[in-house]
Design a protein that fits this description.
Radius of gyration: 15 Å
Structural class: alpha+beta
Distance between the termini: 23 Å
CATH superfamily of the domain at 2-22 and 62-136: START domain
Shape: globular
CATH topology of the domain at 2-22 and 62-136: Alpha-D-Glucose-1,6-Bisphosphate, Chain A, domain 4
Largest sheet: 7 strands, antiparallel
Number of strands: 7
Order of helices and strands: EHEEEEEEHH
Number of helices: 3
Oligomer: single chain
Strand order of the largest sheet: 1-7-6-5-4-3-2
Length: about 150
């Protein structure tokens, strides 16, 4: 199992940052490797990714979501992975975004990448692109403010 934890401070209010993050279908605009995400319903997503020339499709379920606090997910097929993004209000116009991701590398290339922290660098770069995306936008592209309680 490979684990990544990365954070970025964003110059935007927590509501705007959280609202943008809930717009999963915009992820390809700032996440390299993500070709598309289709939101099937409030809890289910279909991902198409291409990383290091390897294309994959998988489904994921939002397992917990609380406005301006956290969004957690896990894969329901394909590569085993799970993650959580948390939002921390630093002040009225600044928010810390932290992503924690756990996944099982499949291929030899993925395993080697995990050993040399290539996945950490990728998440860090994606967070930097999210920061630029949200800071340059006049407002979020949408919002979903619903709750998904943790089960169990």
């Amino acid at each position: 199992m490979s684990s990544v934890t990365e954070s970025v401070d964003v110059e935007a209010p927590i509501a705007q940052v959280y609202n943008q993050w809930t717009q999963f279908e915009t992820f390809p605009e700032f996440m390299s490797g993500v070709q598309s995400i289709t939101q099937l319903d409030d809890r289910h997503l279909h991902w198409k990714i291409k990383v290091a020339g390897v294309e994959r499709e998988f489904d994921a379920e939002v397992t917990e979501q609380h406005p301006e606090e956290r969004v957690a997910w896990k894969s329901t097929d394909g590569t085993s992975h799970a993650g959580v993004v948390t939002f921390h209000k630093l002040d009225q116009n600044h928010t810390k975004v932290t992503v924690q991701l756990d996944w099982d590398p499949d291929t030899l290339l993925e395993k080697a990448g995990a050993i040399v922290n290539a996945d950490d660098m990728q998440v860090s770069r994606d967070l930097d692109r999210f920061k630029k995306f949200i800071e340059q936008a006049p407002s979020e592209t949408g919002a979903w403010r619903g709750e998904v309680p943790r089960e169990g």
